[in-house]
Amino acid sequence: MTTDERAHIDFPSTIGVWWASDTWAMPAAQEVAREIEALGYGSLFIPEITGKECLTQSAAFLSATERLVVGTGIANIHARAASAAESGGRTLTALFPGRFVLGLGVSHAPLVEHGFGGVYDKPLSTMRTYLEKMASVPEAIEPGTGRPIRLLAALGPKMIELSGTHADGAHPYLVMPEQSRKTREILGPDKWIVSEQAVVVGGEAEEQLAYAHGHLNVYSGLPNYRNSWLRQGFEESDLVRGGSDRLARGLVGMGSVDDAAATVRAHLDAGADHVVVQVLGADPTADPRPSLRTLATALGLG
Fold first, then answer.
1. How far is C-alpha 186 from the geometric centre of its chain's CA atoms?
2. Which of 5-14, 105-114, 115-124 has the highest average model confidence (pLDDT)?
3. Given CA atoms 11, 15, 21, 25 in this order, what sign does their dihedral have?
4. CA–CA dist 85, 113 (Å, integer)
5. 279 near 295, Cβ under 8 Å?
6. Cα distance between residue 253 and residue 8, in whole Å
7. Distance from C-alpha of 107 to C-alpha of 246, rounded to nearest angstrom
8. Does residue 170 surpass a pLDDT of 90?
9. pLDDT tens-digit profile of 268-301?
10. Hey, how many other C-beta atoms are within 10 angstroms of the C-beta on 136?
11. Mind listing the pLDDT tens digit for each residue in 123-138?
12. What pLDDT, on the 0 to 100 scale, is given for residue 302?
């Protein structure tokens, strides 16, 4: 799939939210989504690890809101056949045009092999083949809808290139603003970049740093992220479990709420179209709304 025409996503604002609701009952999670929309955030992106299934969740969040864009950040390609991802994405696009984004990723070997019982092989060729299979789903499936908007979890230059030639753009995760800039240089002006930015709102500096290290604990053991951070200028000494203080401060927006807001805006200034904020705390599935309310004011949303 190659085109210079920009795919349409109807983001109400340039800043959204990344939140894992796996441990929440869906009616309560829908209430969170409604407040995220009311606060002025433009999207809710949700992960898929080994908990809830992300297309079902997306349908629930879309039906509970009016304008909020819902995206998968990311749908694990090892969790479903390519035809299922394509047809499911088309159905959500038909029901909620302009409001659903199908973010796709190859995940990581430990998660795929132990969490899904799958086989983790060459990520680039695996993703390319998966996208080609998606493209082969006949137009008779949700006729008149067209394919869903697709973004790739792209960190390395070759996967970023693939996100431009075979998808509608990239969803960088755990990157600094400079990486959003490099992604834009590779993709050019006509592809979407939706960057994730983790932040800590409130608390003392020591507590903020502890939350950042806790967030990085699992990721620092995954080769895809370690390689990404080395490409971004960090060193092997920064890649201790949980990350060095330097790594934590580079990847997580900390300090005052205005400092945290500035890290979000920095991605937009670097070329991202939309930034999804992940607020950190003691529990990754905790209620994000208290921090999001404070951050919304600093970001001038609403």
1. 19
2. 5-14
3. negative
4. 20
5. yes
6. 29
7. 25
8. yes
9. 999 999 999 999 999 989 999 999 999 999 999 9
10. 10
11. 999 999 999 999 999 9
12. 77
Q: How far apart are CA 31 and CA 57, in angstroms?
A: 13
What single-letter DSSP state applies at residue 281? -
Name the CATH superfamily housing domain 15-299: Luciferase-like domain (3.20.20.30)
Strand 75-76 to 100-105 pairing = parallel
DSSP 212-270: HHHHHHHHTT-HHHHHHHHHTT--GGG-STT--HHHHHHHEE-SSHHHHHHHHHHHHHH
Q: What is Dmax (Cα atoms) for the chain?
A: 56
**Which tokens in the block code for residue 38?**
């009311």
C-alpha span between 124 and 75 (Å, rounded) = 16
State residue 50's pLDDT score: 79
55, burial (CB in 10 Å: exposed 0-12, middle 13-18, buried 19+): buried
First to last CA, the chain: 37
Among all chains, which residue has been given the structure tokens 């990486």? 179
Instruction: State both tokens at 124.
Output: 């680039």
DSSP one-letter code for 83: H
- pLDDT over 70, % of the chain: 95
pLDDT at 3: 45
* Half-sphere exposure in the Cβ direction for 63 (13 Å, CA): 11
pLDDT band with cut points at 50, 70 and 90 for residue 49: confident
